[in-house]
Design goal:
It is built from 5 helices and no strands. The chain has one domain: Up-down Bundle (Four Helix Bundle (Hemerythrin (Met), subunit A)), CATH 1.20.120.400. Helices cover about 65% and strands about 0% of the residues. It is elongated. The chain has about 150 residues and is mostly helical. The longest helix has about 35 residues.
């Protein structure tokens, strides 16, 4: 049995603030997802019960309800994912000086994403939109020239 020699090259280590150091961050995806959750809750609440003796009406109702619920679930998940990316990759310790409640705002928004997956409640859906809009405002303020933190080296 022959043993081949393996050659390993030394790979330099790269350091970045996120998994892919693209530097592209925007809360808009989270805002759209939150607004979609709200719209789906509205559509679910507006959906009329079918005449259960008519198969076509039942099928249409079940199809619509399934699509609305699936979309609400998926966009709640997307919203949470986008928020976590902003929270863990974009916002830095120096942003806490501008927003001492930053962690609490993100934590509550992430919890609202989960809550909106678990229930159909217009109040929770509106709270999610408001929380994500608050985070978007924080994001914009970090980009302004007067409040821009020094980049960490």
């Amino acid at each position: 049995m022959k043993i081949k020699k393996l050659f390993f090259s030394i790979i330099p280590v790269g350091y970045a603030h996120c998994d892919v150091p693209c530097g592209i961050y925007d809360p808009k995806a989270a805002q759209i997802a939150a607004q979609t959750v709200l719209k789906m809750v509205e559509k679910i609440n507006e959906l009329s019960l079918p005449d259960f003796s008519k198969k076509e009406e039942v099928d249409e109702y079940l199809n619509s309800m399934t699509r609305f619920v699936w979309t609400k679930e998926e966009h709640s998940r997307k919203c949470k994912e986008e928020l976590l990316i902003l929270w863990t990759d974009y916002f830095k310790p120096e942003h806490l000086a501008l927003f001492p409640n930053l962690h609490d705002v993100f934590w509550k928004a992430a919890k609202l994403c989960s809550c909106n997956k678990q229930c159909v409640d217009i109040t929770h859906a509106q709270e999610l939109v408001e929380a994500v809009d608050q985070i978007a405002d924080m994001f914009v303020k970090t980009k302004s020239s007067t409040n821009k933190p020094q980049s960490a080296k």
